[in-house]
UniProtKB/TrEMBL annotation:
The keyword Cell membrane applies. Its main location: membrane. The keyword Transmembrane applies. It is found in: Cell membrane. InterPro entries: DoxX (IPR032808), DoxX-like_oxidoreductase (IPR051907). Keywords: Cell membrane, Membrane, Transmembrane, Transmembrane helix. GO terms for cellular component: plasma membrane. This is Uncharacterized membrane protein YphA, DoxX/SURF4 family. It is a multi-pass membrane protein. Pfam families: DoxX (PF07681). Belongs to the DoxX family. The chain crosses the membrane at residues 21-40, 60-84, 96-116, 166-185.
Length: 199
């Protein structure tokens, strides 16, 4: 019985192997707008982003801030655009991963893991735990002096913690694309590779 089940299982796996390009496709289509928006935002607010990148007192204190902004924004914008059709996916994943590492270490690390403050999480640090009191106070003020039901009509009020959660998640997704490539049948890379193999 176990042998029969194993054979059926393997037969199903063989049939769905032709769909293995769907996972990289979905990762690409998820990551592309995230990366492109991040790059576009940096270009849209170029001067303030340069100031933030370069200032050691209230910013990141990075050297050559203009160059760093152009490199980061260009990588995210162009890299994200190339992910959509699946062009040079493995190659593009490397600088995009680098931007995620830099973002995690220079911007988000000091805030811990959580992107949104959730004091009930086992990952909550002191900053997150303290934010719960501030959130409750803000809700009280809005309930007393604002139209609270309208303000929360599209979602709950939250405190942005800005931890490494999103940068780390995007890094893992990009690392996966580095190993899988753009995906069978779903990327330009696949068809280019197939064409080169024929020659």
């Amino acid at each position: 019985m176990l042998r029969t089940m194993t054979q059926h299982y393997n037969a199903v796996l063989q049939r769905i192997l032709h769909l293995d390009g769907l996972a990289p496709l979905l990762l690409r289509l998820y990551l592309a707008p995230v990366m492109m928006q991040a790059g576009w935002t940096k270009f849209q607010s170029f001067d303030s982003t340069v100031a933030w990148f370069g200032n050691a007192d209230w910013g990141l204190g990075l050297p050559f801030p203009e160059l760093m902004v152009v490199l980061a924004a260009g990588t995210e914008l162009v890299g994200g655009a190339l992910l959509i059709p699946g062009i040079a996916v493995r190659l593009v994943s490397i600088p995009l991963m680098a931007t995620m590492v830099v973002a995690a270490l220079t911007v988000h690390l000091e805030y811990g893991w959580l992107a949104i403050a959730d004091s009930s999480s086992w990952l909550a640090n002191e900053r997150v735990l303290e934010s719960a009191e501030r959130l409750e106070r803000a809700k009280g003020i809005l309930q007393e002096h604002g139209n609270y039901s309208w303000l929360t009509g599209r979602g709950s009020l939250v405190v942005l913690n800005n931890g490494i959660e999103f940068a780390a998640t995007y890094f893992v997704m990009l690392l996966t694309l580095l190993f899988t490539g753009g995906g069978r049948y779903t990327s330009v890379d696949y068809y280019v590779s197939r064409s080169l193999d024929r020659n």
